[in-house]
Task: inverse folding
């Protein structure tokens, strides 16, 4: 499983949601740990969060469940 920012579990950018999925933690608990670590490390967590926001790719969007028929049925769909 690749480390990606979450699409469905995000508050700001999906960093904590993506980390929580990868670590199999609850996202709320990870956010609490992140806030406490940020406060107790002189706000280094903010810099790390911004770096992860920039470096982590966004989770791909799920494929649509329904694909509509082509508008021109005489052309093959790709």
Result:
């Amino acid at each position: 499983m690749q480390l990606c920012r979450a699409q469905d579990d995000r508050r700001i950018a999906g960093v904590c949601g993506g980390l929580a999925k990868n670590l199999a933690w609850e996202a709320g608990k990870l956010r609490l740990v992140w806030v406490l670590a940020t406060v107790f490390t002189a706000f280094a967590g903010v810099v790390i969060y911004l770096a992860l926001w920039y470096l982590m790719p966004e989770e791909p969007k799920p494929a649509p469940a329904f694909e509509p028929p082509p508008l021109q049925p005489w052309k093959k769909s790709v």
